[in-house]
Amino acid sequence: MNLLIIFFIYFVFSTCNANPTRIAGGAVADITQYPFATSLLSNQGQGAYVQACGGTIISQTAILSAASCFVTNNVVNPVVWWRARVGTANSNTRGLIYLIRRITTHSDFQSATRVNDIAVLRTSLNIVFGQNVQAAYIAGGAYSLANNQQVWAIGWGATSVSAPSSTVLRHVQIWVNDQQVCANRYSEVNYTVNNNMLCAGWLDVGIRGQCLGDTGSPLLDNGVVVGVYSWTQGCGVSRFPNINTRVSSYSRWIEVTATAA
């Protein structure tokens, strides 16, 4: 495994080859297992801030997430709608909350199809690193995943379509699915899956995977962020995999966006 580490910004890439509100079919996780996990809180322009999406710390000033979290009627939300809670497995208590100074979504993001569903948030202040707060390793352009490779999904999403948001971080082990099988299945319901998307789930076996409120949360291969959760048909539906934005396809965009002045 070859790792490219940019120490001066604590931003890390991996170029090696290589279970939307609560995680469905998962178990409670500890923040020490995933110190880069970020609960993104929103007030949608009014009222209290509540957990709405997930994210990943990738530097002391940057958080990786999904563009679909921050775009309403094709307009990027004002930064004051969003805050980031880090350093805790609880979405509504403890840790530290950081204000957001910039939300950058991919210029070619399409809300209807979730193509290029990726975003980087910049915090107003430097994130203070410690035992419970660290930057994650990010898959670089040469990172590859085999079919049926085990990966881990984390988030504060729902355990089912009808369930409320989780107040605690959860994780679940799932598997990388064959891209063509995934694309064929989604074509049955008139959705398009392209090669910049990563399919993962517990295909044809049981209800396990990402769900409502997990959007923007990372998909991990041995601790390396290989996907950003984007969308799925239902929640943990065995016939349809979870669709993640494939991080290796956007590693250069992430690097440039996370280091921009």
TrEMBL record:
<feature type="domain" description="Peptidase S1">
    <location>
        <begin position="23"/>
        <end position="259"/>
    </location>
</feature>
<dbReference type="InterPro" id="IPR043504">
    <property type="entry name" value="Peptidase_S1_PA_chymotrypsin"/>
</dbReference>
<keyword id="KW-1015">Disulfide bond</keyword>
<keyword id="KW-0732">Signal</keyword>
<dbReference type="InterPro" id="IPR050430">
    <property type="entry name" value="Peptidase_S1"/>
</dbReference>
<protein>
    <recommendedName>
        <fullName>trypsin</fullName>
        <ecNumber>3.4.21.4</ecNumber>
    </recommendedName>
</protein>
<dbReference type="InterPro" id="IPR001254">
    <property type="entry name" value="Trypsin_dom"/>
</dbReference>
<dbReference type="InterPro" id="IPR001314">
    <property type="entry name" value="Peptidase_S1A"/>
</dbReference>
<keyword id="KW-0378">Hydrolase</keyword>
<dbReference type="Pfam" id="PF00089">
    <property type="entry name" value="Trypsin"/>
</dbReference>
<comment type="similarity">
    <text>Belongs to the peptidase S1 family.</text>
</comment>
<feature type="signal peptide">
    <location>
        <begin position="1"/>
        <end position="18"/>
    </location>
</feature>
<dbReference type="GO" id="GO:0004252">
    <property type="term" value="F:serine-type endopeptidase activity"/>
</dbReference>
<dbReference type="GO" id="GO:0007586">
    <property type="term" value="P:digestion"/>
</dbReference>
<keyword id="KW-0645">Protease</keyword>
<dbReference type="GO" id="GO:0006508">
    <property type="term" value="P:proteolysis"/>
</dbReference>
<keyword id="KW-0865">Zymogen</keyword>
<dbReference type="InterPro" id="IPR009003">
    <property type="entry name" value="Peptidase_S1_PA"/>
</dbReference>
<keyword id="KW-0222">Digestion</keyword>
<keyword id="KW-0720">Serine protease</keyword>
